[in-house]
Prior knowledge:
By secondary structure, the protein is α+β, with helices and mostly antiparallel strands. Helices cover 44% and strands 13% of the residues. It has helices at residues 7-25, 45-48, 78-95, 109-113, 141-157, 168-181, 193-201, 212-225, and strands at 59-65, 68-74, 122-125, 128-131, 136-139, 166-167, 205-206. β1 (59-65) and β2 form a beta hairpin. α1 runs antiparallel to α3, α5 (141-157) runs antiparallel to α8 (212-225) and α7 (193-201) packs across α8 (212-225).
Amino acid sequence: MGWIESPPFFCAASETGRDVAEDYVEAPVGSLPEHKFEKYTAGSTAYNELPPTATGTLQYLVEVYVDDFISLAIATSQEHLNHVARGVLQGIHDVFPANEEDALDPIALKKLLKEEGRWLLEKEILGFIFDGANKTIWLEDSKRQALLAVLKGWLRKSRGDKPEGIPFDEFQSVLSKLRHAFTAIPAGKGLLSHCNDVMRTEPSFIQLHTNQDLYEAIMSIRGFLH
Length: 226
């Protein structure tokens, strides 16, 4: 789905698709017709281990981030998961009409073929790893390791006889990534206070060796991410 030229308009449409999808999911389980793409959501080990017929109560969440529709479910059967999948897929097609040729459909077939729409117990979503078995969320490891490497470099360069400062643009970019990372650990947001204080002054370079509070904050942030 192309959204780059006009994100606000596109997001208004995708949010509408989410609302429509939620209405469909609120319908009685088993009442929705099969969807041509729902087969791509089934087949995982976790899916196959569930009984086929609905039992118990379905709990779910449907969200959208720009053009990524995200479904989470506490299901007791394959029928529950099929129902949520049908509701979301149909909700998208109600706003972004289906194409007879699957390869040209607004729902990206190439992503479905990569199993990005499959129900899984552990899945990467927007840079975070959601673990349905342990009920945890954590930053994707490659992103976490990249942040740790940058922070280690900052601390190392601030020591020695000739300490180096951090360019403001670099500091600002990394700080935005840390804010995103601390979505998973809200308690860590307090450690960003000294970073925010420095950002308000917009210096050309941030000097850790002359700001002990900031130095210790970076040390603590690194510890949180380990």
